[in-house]
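W.,

You were right to be curious about this one. When I first looked at the sequence I had no strong expectations either way, so I just let the prediction run and decided to look at it fresh. Below is the sequence, 496 residues in total, followed by the output.
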Amino acid sequence: MPKKASSFELMLRPRDSKAPAYRWLYAAVRGEILDGQLRPGTRLPATRDLAQRYGLSRGTVVSAFEQLKSEGYVEGSVGSGTYVTKVLPDELLQVTRKAGAQPAPQRKQRKKISDYGKRVELFPSYEIRPSRAFRANLPALELFPTNLWAQIAARRLRRASITFLLGCGALGYYPLREAVAGYLRTSRGVNCDAEQVAIVTGVQEALDLTSRLVLNPGDRVCMENPGFPGAAMAFEAVGAKVSAMRVDEEGMELPSAGLRDARLIYITPGHQFPLGITMSLARRLELLEWARNSGALIFEDDYDSEYRYSGPPVPALQGFDRNGLVIFSGTFSKVLFPSLRLGYLVIPSDLINLFAATISLTTRHAPLVEQAVLCDFITEGHFGRHLRRMREVYAERLSLLMKEARERLYGLLEISEIEAGLQTVGWLREGIEGESATKAAAARDVEVFPLSRYSRGRTAREGLQLGFAAVDEREIRRGVQELAVALEGESRAVCR
């Protein structure tokens, strides 16, 4: 097919004054080609002619043509003319079919995945919506000092060096590891130094790491019942068998046949999730002795221990460990704000290199900027002040919830006296089911959570989890009033 010379002047779309001249010319010519105004094989005007017509420098026109050529829209060279390419690059992306032809039916092949892929399940995240009574597991986000946090972050970024921008070691930003170790020694009685601390994205990552490093398919893990579903999901994803252990007023019951041959024990001794019980000292020492004799490891999830409202501080279980049996973990997401995906893992000395190697192959390290900001937030005293302030606020909200519940929920819901945490448990009147009570409360815009969803097997007693930390005084009063109406309706239904 012979090349067709353009016998007319090229009429282009008006120039956008904000766009660079060569980008405008490139886009205009490309648009004419794609619209079919300039057909394949058409010769374009000379660069000098285009420059003169549109008041451009010849260099600008040459740059636009070179861009078109590099993308496959035109071809040719200086001196021989420039032509629209016969086969446009956009056409190469289109699948051509003969008229009337139908694609042959193909059997969809099932993709092969690993055993882990068959077992793993989605762990739901927070619903993004305003908090209401009695949403659990959340701090008072409206009281977090966001302006202060932003100032620290801006200062950190202004001072960022090339070395800082490169990243850090797998176990995390060392100054933050030092700050966390100091905080845990002082406030939680943890026996550790900075070398043992790994900064992770939260307790869930710590559980995943521990599961993959400690457990093989078929190994037994013991955990409290009711207990944290995210832990059970992590263990079962690697093929472990979970044994549910009863919880009494002193914490997880020991000894038990369920402990036989256990490779790992998951426990929340500081503030049992979800019941809020603090494990007794005698039970802690008994558990450590059993682990020492059996060779099992203990994963201590220090859930909600920062906020204690009554009684003396209770040291972490790890602080009593003299044999390197306890892996200790906690998170800043519950203390500060959920989108801060930072937590810590205190690792027995003989397992440090193993954890570091595994992290280096997965997350590499937790986000460094956030680590540095949190480090400054702790070392400059803001973290301690925030904890003290929030402890007072949450204690007041808990006291109000208990007062309102005694007045309006008597005989319907008995709320437990707790010593720490962001939520509590209410025990339902006999005959009222947790699931039906939850639905009745939701119909009145009240959010509670049935304890049965945290349990493996039948529950000994029906109850509800109620959060108070993220709920202000006005919403607590409204929530109790509406919950009372909902439970009265459920109680009448039971009596009929």
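Here's what jumped out at me. The mean pLDDT is 89. And, maybe more interesting for your project: The first strand starts at residue 74 and ends at 77.

Coffee later to discuss?

I.
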